[in-house]
Amino acid sequence: MIKLFLKTRFANVALLIFAMSLIFLVLGVMEIIDDNTKPIDYSTMTESQLEEGAIIEGDLKFNLGRYEEIEHTRNGSVESVDYCYVIPVGQSGYAGILSNVSDVVSDLDKQTEETYKVLNGDVDSTQTVVHFKGKVVEMKDEDYNYFCDYLKNIGFSDKEINELGCRYYIQIRKFNQGVTMTVVGAVIFIISIVLILISIRDMKKLMKTSSVDPYAESNVSTNTESTVSANTETPAIPTPEDFNDR
After folding, report:
1. 66 φ/ψ angles, rounded to the nearest 5 degrees
2. Which of 61, 42, 44, 59 is nearest to 119 (CA)?
3. Which residues, at least 6 apart from 29, have a Cβ–Cβ distance to it below 8 Å?
4. Residues 6+ apart with CB under 8 A from 14
5. How many CA atoms lie within 13 A of 108 on its CB side?
6. Which of 60, 123, 147, 183 could form a disulfide with 130 if both were Cys (CB 3.0 to 4.6 A apart)?
7. How far apart, in whole angstroms, are the C-alpha atoms of residue 187 and residue 190?
8. What backbone phi and psi angles, to 5 degrees, belong to 163?
9. 42: how many CB neighbours lie within 10 A of its CB?
10. Quick check: 85 and 104 in contact, CB under 8 A?
């Protein structure tokens, strides 16, 4: 039955769209939850509040520079690049912040230069303020190694990194897209159901056309046998009288 279903016109498309609709619906619901979660204020947060899934929002005034660039590729070509920076968190902690938006990255680079001018005593404060809202993600081992190596390069000891370095980064991204994604997922879901129903109808037609009428087979056999019998009947042997008549 499954094989017959897959032979119908829209079966593969229907299953693909159905899977896509589920993905959109799940992501949409997750986005709605994030959209309605009250963000933690960056200016007053503590290191302990930096945990997986937390939503953080605030004004960033300092960062210690870019520690990693993460390329995202598709079919061998670079689709986007995430730029990661070291930022202070809480009273004495440090974590990462990530963005792939060119304007935000440009401001973060400016802010890095201004931050080191403040640390060197050249100016009293930074001029560039980056407002952000993002979600906390735990670093992978490779990313965390880059994070630690960068902190070492700018003067942190291993002990300080272990005590102050947080294994998390804040991913700056857009919010308030959950409803749109859910609506799109619902529309795609309805389309997939319609295509599945059409495929089921076509499958039933295939089942009817592929089935053989047993009575038709019986009639064919009978007719065949009678034809063979008629053709194979032994002819009558001529008698002497038949020749005399000629």
Report:
1. -85, 125
2. 61
3. 178, 182
4. 192, 195, 196, 198, 199
5. 24
6. 60
7. 5
8. -85, -35
9. 23
10. no
DSSP state of 228: H
Q: Residue with structure tokens 């799940």?
A: 26
Q: What is the largest CA-CA distance in the chain?
A: 145
Q: Which of 190, 193, 180, 196 is nearest to 24 (CA)?
A: 180
Place of tokens 């933690």: 40
CA dihedral angle for residue 132, residue 133, residue 136, residue 141, rounded to 10 degrees: -40
Which residue in this structure is represented by tokens 């404060």?
125
Sign of the four-CA dihedral 90, 132, 180, 71? negative
Task: From first to last of the 246 residues of the chain, give the pLDDT tens digit.
Answer: 666 556 666 677 878 888 888 888 888 887 777 777 789 999 999 999 999 999 999 999 999 999 999 998 888 888 889 999 999 999 889 999 999 999 999 999 999 999 999 999 999 999 999 999 999 999 999 999 999 999 999 999 999 998 888 899 999 988 677 677 788 888 888 888 888 888 877 777 777 776 544 444 444 444 444 444 445 554 554 454 554 554
What sign results for the dihedral spanned by CA atoms 22, 27, 28, 32?
positive
